[in-house]
Amino acid sequence: MSVYAYDQIDRDMLADRAAEFRGQVTRRLAGDLSEDQFKPLRLMNGLYLQLHAYMLRVAIPYGALDGRQLRALAEISREFDKGYGHFTTRTNIQFHWIRLKDAPDILDRLAAVDLHAIQTSGNCIRNVTADPYAGATAEEVDDPRVWSEAIRQWSTFHPEFTYLPRKFKIAVTGSAKDRTAARSHDIGLKLTRNRDGQLGFEVMVGGGMGRTPYLGPTIREFLPARSLLSYLTAILRVYNRLGRRDNIYKARIKILVAATGAEDFGRQVEAEWAALDQAAIDLPDLELARIRTAFGVVPFEALPARSTAFEAARAADPAFARFARNNLAPHKRPGYAIVNISLKAPGETPGDATAEQMEAVAGLAERYGQDDIRVTHAQNLVLPHVKLDDLPVVFAELQRHGLATPNLDLVTDIIACPGLDYCALANARAIPIAQDIARRFETPDRAEAIGELKIKISGCINACGHHHVGHIGILGVDKKGEEFYQLSLGGSGAEDASLAAILGPALPADQVAPAVEALVDAYLGLRSDASERFLDTYRRLGPAPFKEAVYADADQA
Amino acid sequence: MTLQALTANRLLDGEVVFWSGDAWVEQFADARLYDAEAPAEAALASAKGLATVLIDPYLIAVTDDGAAPVSFRERIRALGPSDHLDLGKQAQGGAAIAAIQHAHGAARSTGRLSLIRRKP
Ligand code: SF4
Question: Would you list the domain boundaries of chain A?
Fold first, then answer.
């Protein structure tokens, strides 16, 4: 057992939900429901209409899956879609070629493996983002999945919070190193301990991307962990009461927090919280313990910290050594590693996985990874618990399926939203830009020499590609019907969060990859040494030399 | 006036369709092109009555030679995604598809002037 185990109540709820949607689809097709009536119903089940077909967004609660679930997703992609799926920056998966008439059957298939599309649309509390290294990294104070699951249960169909002024996203990180972009969420929660060793959360509120990006300020340095749900309730109540409903662009909590001021907003939350019947909302310790137990215990073996098989493979195979250098992270247990599976092979679509690839990853998780798979907000996958001894064979299998790209957090590990290739809201394509850039840097030596560089691309101002927090952010804009791209520099979605600043005038599509190359070349010439990341150099020197590099080049072109 | 075509997504499967004058067809090349406002608007009005067949019919602007939609978005709808040339309408290949793929000149942002692009 690696994911939270559903009980009969959960299963009945999913079955009911799927049956209800089947009825709604039947009524829509018969003409008993108009599109205006039906659209909110299908959206509540993750079904969007995009450019070429319907898109079904399936929730992957806090990004955690087991092999059986990933196999089911692979089967759905093969049977009902076109043999692939797209992992998103919200750690969900989207199928881009869905037929309305198939959607009820798909929800049944999902329900059979405890999956669904609830909380993937609408102005409700959406699927929670959690650290993909949960339960595996020694950095963590506590397992964020337990708290994410508590939030999921509390927020699913919460009658008071189903029609908020706007959608609402929560992230939970268990460690100081932030792999969730916590400050870019409506609420970011960081598990921490106070001086007395008590477990709690730092609470950040009012972050967000979109057309007005904000980093969420901390409104409470330490909230005792057991008070989480009552405190969230207080935040949501203040938001529900004061958040704007008159203007869609000003309806997110970030606007309210910015307008009110973090301190004042925090005071209102505290007042609301003090007035609540907290005990009636907060989970009793017993229930928290039950949730924790429902994740099961990973049967780790006592292993030596050093693996001869791993060391021998690393010495013998430079490709494996490179993969180990870039894609492995330390595990809390000796003899284990966290394996990052990049879905960013140069030339491929960021975040896409074919049915065969999904099955391969599911098989690896089942055989070598405690049946545990995670999805990251950077659109990659993680096998959180793999024995060092097994890494050579896991690597070989990943290679066989085109999944061993050794580029985690490097220049080719690009986040890109579906953009105008699929998305009905897009202004410009994002995928071909990512492909162009990745091809330019596809020589692994070069990418490694550049070091950590996070490029994030969005096809419109909704910012699903997180361009505001890219070391290099790229935003597609529509200039008189042509695709243009605005470059921003200096953003970060990690613990050193910052918002990127626009570099200069937007560039035509074919100038974007050359501009990125010019930025990288400038950085290589400017960095104090190889340990100074692109972001650090930018922060040290400011935009001027980078502006010069791009726009001087553009003039010559 | 600019040429126009009538398009929508099919309710049952979301497929992009065009009005040929007789039927809803899947290829832009088979779309009827209107060079006058009144018949185009009349076709749109009757399409709006087909609530169990279509979602959201609208008129799009077409290039003067009739070979391609004007806007980039509509070209992608008429072709398919550019990261999977084997998928969507473009997969069938042929001269008409190539004409849309190679349509040049600035694609003006027309066709859906009333489109409000906000995320649900
Ligand atoms: S950023 Fe815009 S184009 Fe990209 S997926 Fe989001 S809404 Fe679509």
Answer: 8-112, 136-294, 308-400, 415-551
Q: What is the mean pLDDT of chain B?
A: 89
Backbone angles phi, psi at A127, to 5 degrees: -50, 130
User: Which CATH code fits A415-551?
Assistant: 3.30.413.10
| Number of neighbours of residue A299 by Cβ within 10 angstroms | 7
CATH number of A8-112: 3.90.480.20
pLDDT, averaged in runs of 10, over chain A (557 residues): 90 96 98 96 96 98 98 98 98 98 97 96 95 98 97 95 95 97 98 97 97 97 98 97 91 96 98 97 96 94 98 98 98 98 96 98 98 98 98 98 98 98 96 97 97 98 97 94 93 98 96 97 98 98 97 59
Q: What is the pLDDT of residues A257-299, one digit of tens each?
A: 999 999 999 999 999 999 999 999 999 999 999 999 999 999 9
For residues A402 and A372, the answer to whether their CB atoms sit within 8 Å is no
**A481: chain B residues, CB-CB within 8 Å:** 70-72, 106-110
Give the contacts of A385 (CB within 8 A, at least 6 positions apart).
A135, A136, A298, A300, A331, A333, A336, A338, A369, A370, A372
Cβ(A415) to ligand 1 under 6 A?
A: no
Cβ atoms of A216 and A469 within 8 Å: the answer is no
Q: What is the DSSP letter of A4?
A: P
Task: Give the structural domain span for B113.
Answer: 3-117
Cα(B100)–Cα(B92) distance, rounded to whole angstroms?
13
The residue whose two tokens read 């080719």 is A412
Q: What are phi and psi of B102, to 5 degrees?
A: -105, 10
Distance, CA A89 to ligand 1 centroid (Å)? 11
Are A136-294 and A415-551 equal in CATH topology? yes
> Are B109 and A421 in contact (CB < 8 Å)?
no
**Domain count within chain B:** 1
C-alpha A205 – ligand 1 centre gap (Å) = 23
Nearest-5° angle of CA A112, CA A116, CA A122? Answer: 165
Cβ neighbours of residue A340 closer than 8 Å, sequence gap 6 or more: A327, A328, A329, A376, A380, A381, A382, A408
- CATH fold, domain A136-294, is Sulfite Reductase Hemoprotein; domain 1 (3.30.413)
A308-400 has which CATH code? 3.90.480.20
Whole-number Å distance between alpha carbons of A259 and A262? 9
B15 contacts in chain A (CB < 8 Å):
52-53
Number of neighbouring beta carbons within 10 Å of residue A110: 22
